[in-house]
Amino acid sequence: MIRSATMINRVAWRSMMSLQKAAVRTAASSSQQGSQRHKPPSQQPPGPASQQPTRQASQQPMRQPSQQALEFSPLPWVDFTSPDLAQTAANPRKITFLCNSFNGLSQRLYLELLSRGHHVTVHEDPRGEEMTRAVEADQPDLVLCPFQTRRVPAELYNNPARPALIVHPGIPGDRGPSSIDWALKEGTTEWGVTVLQADDEMDSGDIWATCKFPVNRQATKSSLYSKEVTQAAVVSVLKAIEAWEQSVPPTPLDYRHPEVC
């Protein structure tokens, strides 16, 4: 799936969602009354790209950000009004998302980056060479993988001028796909999100930014992910972009460091 947009607000999103729902109802009604065969893509009437988003791989209709992503309530430990988090980007960037799914975390990051003036293109469920082709087509300033469990091709992260950032739901040094499960199982009282440079080994790249948060022992995995992890991801990504723009290099992952688990 590809989506490209400029700065939007919540009202605009709600309007877009309403229009798309109406379009789906109209299309379904027409299909029942007429032929069951669909027109080939080449015969579809042209229109603005923002009105005709499609998934690259499966060609399914695009999912818009959910109501939960739109109605965002910051947690007490996050201050999105602070100057380093609230400011509009001085130099709007072209950012390409590569994600398994356009889930709640990806949607929140998408909206936060748009609101700061960045231009974001989302590719949902790209695999292998599809990732490379997507980035080559977009020519972004940086690549962001907010929910990506597949290995990023080496040609994407070996470009020093264009970082490929991985959003990992764990503290520095924690690796693997079950970070939150282990945090809850071990009863940890503090967890976090780390933005890493993509590397040969999963979750082992240099650290661009990290944000820690207190863990409620009564929290479920889904609630922790949709609230604390999502908001910590926003903070970490904004800090990572700021560090990159200021030419601050990422910190190598060093297990001898006391803050690395």
From TrEMBL:
Top-rank taxon: Eukaryota
Region listing for Disordered, in residue ranges: 23-68
InterPro entries registered for this protein in UniProt: Formyl_transf_N, Formyl_transf_N_sf, HoxX-like
Record field: compositional bias (Polar residues): 54-68
Pfam family, one: Formyl_trans_N
Span of domain Formyl transferase N-terminal: 127-228
Protein name, entry field: Hydrogenase maturation factor HoxX-like
Provenance organism: Branchiostoma floridae
The organism's taxonomic lineage, starting at the top: Eukaryota, Metazoa, Chordata, Cephalochordata, Leptocardii
